[in-house]
Automatic annotation (TrEMBL):
Name of the protein: Acyl-CoA dehydrogenase
Every Acyl-CoA dehydrogenase/oxidase N-terminal domain range: 10-121
Family: Belongs to the acyl-CoA dehydrogenase family.
Keywords tagged on the record: FAD, Flavoprotein, Oxidoreductase
TM ranges: none
Length: 381
């Protein structure tokens, strides 16, 4: 079966793919075990990627970016999935944090932060989730209350990707505690502000090389110019506008993950023998792999269509919600069936399929749980 070439691929993107593939094979794949052990990537990985132009590829050149599109980011996500890495929170930095700044930042904020994010001098994070609330974002308790020409930020966040390495955090906070969603604003908090503290790097089931952390804000004073955008109370709308891209990133990764699991399992079952023949020769194996190949193909076609629509500015929120829940659920099922076909070796963490199985699970939870995705879809029915 020939591999599907995405409809949105171009010659320019093929060069980006070569560059990204080389980078992941040289700088990331050999270090995955180390990243898992230390629960974070090496800080200079960001700088090395920045030097090669792999950071902020979809940010305009005037802000230090590559002047590309979401397709450039999609290529990077696919190449990261190809080597089975989940340690490096690069897509969150590139396609989420940088895009909040690009979309809502003042000219001064964009000039100040985006060039540094593109070189890797600054690592970005976004802090929505709190110990008491995740899905129900209107209920955040973190406050940014104005006192003169400053906001005073108090509260705590949890499960924050890039938490321990972040230099700049977009914090979802209430600037008006009497309001629900209309009281939410996004504020920029630098990690070197007094009162800012990164707590534990959390001990997770999977994605163990990723520095998912707790953050604490105790009377952190930031200038009012750190409000993202021009007016208070726009945070919820800004989140709703950006979350589709975040969900598309997950779907792109899920498809690439499925394709990777399938390729590994085809190779494994053709080389492993039982009862005098390759495991691949058993009808059950062929049926399971045929099902996985079908899932991967359908997912690829659907997500490619979503990417093309997104590039044209036509991707709607319910469609990307469908892509997010469906691809992540199918990716989990594909990984589970592929793991089974590896027998006991599938349960050994040195086998990429074992890692894919645990790493995939969270995709059904973050960026909006799959139940929330179905709520979004159901509202349109
Ligand atoms: C590895 C990892 C990385 C993460 N990175 C980040 C990050 O960088 N920044 C950030 O802000 N957050 C991050 N998160 C947090 C993640 O987005 C939240 O965990 C997620 O949104 C769910 O919120 P919750 O954990 O509070 O679960 P809850 O909201 O408490 O949900 C618990 C269960 O209830 C269900 N539920 C809730 N509401 C409804 C409803 N209305 N209808 C039906 N079912 C419902 C959920 O689907 C879920 O099954 C990360 C999480 C993990 C695990």
């Amino acid at each position: 079966m020939t591999a599907q070439t995405s409809s949105w691929m171009t010659e320019d993107l093929a060069d980006v793919r070569d560059l990204a593939r080389n980078f992941f094979e040289k700088e990331v794949a050999p270090n995955i075990e180390k990243f898992i052990e230390q629960h974070h990537v090496d800080r200079d990985l960001w700088n090395k990627a920045g030097e090669l132009g792999l950071l902020c590829m979809s940010i305009p050149e005037e802000y230090g970016g590559g002047g590309g599109t979401f397709a450039h980011e999609a290529v990077l996500i696919e190449e990261q999935a190809r080597v089975g890495d989940t340690s490096w929170g690069v897509s969150l930095h590139n396609s989420i944090v940088a895009h909040y700044l690009l979309s809502y930042g003042t000219e001064e904020q964009k000039q100040k932060w985006l060039p540094k994010m593109a070189t890797g001098e600054v690592v970005g994070a976004i802090a929505m989730t709190e110990p008491g609330t995740g899905s129900d974002l209107q209920n955040v308790k973190t406050k940014a209350i104005q006192h003169g020409d400053e906001y005073v930020v108090n509260g705590s966040k949890t499960f924050i990707t890039n938490g321990s390495q972040a230099d700049l955090v977009i914090v979802v906070a209430k600037t008006d505690t009497a309001e629900a969603k209309n009281g939410i604003s996004l504020v920029l908090v630098e990690a070197d502000r007094p009162g800012y503290r990164c707590g534990r790097v959390l001990d997770k089931l999977g994605q163990r090389g990723q520095d998912t952390a707790e953050l604490f804000f105790d009377d952190v004073r930031i200038p009012t110019s750190n409000l993202l955008g021009t007016a208070e109370g726009l945070g919820f709308i800004q989140l709703m506008q950006q979350l589709p891209q975040e969900r598309l990133i997950i779907a792109v990764g899920a498809v690439a993950g499925m394709e990777g699991a399938l390729a590994q399992t085809i190779a494994y079952t053709k080389s492993r023998q039982a009862f005098g023949k390759p495991i691949f020769a058993f009808q059950n194996t062929k049926f399971k792999l045929a099902e996985a190949a079908t899932d991967a193909k359908i997912a690829r076609v659907f997500v490619d269509d979503c990417v093309s629509k997104h590039l044209r500015g036509e991707l709607d929120i319910p469609t990307v919600a469908m892509a997010k829940w469906w691809t992540t659920e199918r990716a989990m099922s594909v990984a589970d069936n592929c793991l089974q076909l590896h027998g006991g070796y599938g349960y050994m963490t040195e086998y990429p399929i074992a890692r894919a199985w645990v790493d995939n699970r969270v995709q059904m939870i973050y960026a909006g749980t799959n139940e929330i995705m179905k709520e979004i879809i159901a509202r349109t029915l």
